[in-house]
Amino acid sequence: MPRRAAKPQPPPEDDAVAAPASVCALCGRPIPEGARASRHHLTPRLKGGARLGTVLLHQICHSAIHARFNEAELARRLSDIGSLRAEPEIARFLEWVRDKPPDFHAPTRRSRGKNGPHRGRRA
């Protein structure tokens, strides 16, 4: 009876090589394990993109997109990473975030012009 080859055993934990970090599709920086990240629907779900492609982004990058553009604009002209990167407001954000650590996160403020005046503010 032929002998079966033994299954290769994983290396002990202290010798294991760290798994490669995911990379943010927008800024290109690594997304380390435990960092804030989320999936961005390239075509917004409300505009028919529920079953279409998503990309992994740092949460700060994802928030920057949604703070600047409404769903209709994202669906109409910003439904791919190249067009998002080419947008001047996102290009400025990418220049700013480029030198931040991969796990950097800060609150993102909504742009004033996105949806008109903020609710609760008096004119």
Kindly state the percentage of residues in helix: 25-40%
Overall strand count = 4
Overall spatial form: globular
Count, helices: 4
> What structural class results from the helix and strand content?
alpha+beta
Strand line-up of the largest beta sheet: 1-2
Q: Regions with pLDDT < 50 over 5+ consecutive residues?
A: 7-17, 115-123
Q: How would you state the average pLDDT, rounded?
A: 80
Strand content: 5-15%
Question: What is the CA-based Rg, rounded?
Answer: 20 Å
Order of helices and strands: EEEEHHHH
- Termini, distance in Å? 87 Å
User: Biggest β-sheet: count, sense, barrel?
Assistant: 2 strands, antiparallel
Region (Disordered): 100-123
Biased composition (Basic residues): 107-123
Protein name: HNH endonuclease
Organism: Craurococcus roseus
Characterise this structure.
By secondary structure, the protein is an alpha+beta fold. The chain has a domain at 22-97. It is 27% helix and 11% strand. The protein has helices at residues 59-68, 71-77, 81-86, 88-97, and strands spanning 22-23, 30-31, 37-41, 54-58. The protein has a two-stranded antiparallel ribbon with strand order 1-2. A two-stranded antiparallel sheet has the order 3-4. This is HNH endonuclease. Residues 107-123 have a biased composition (Basic residues). Residues 100-123 are annotated as: Disordered.
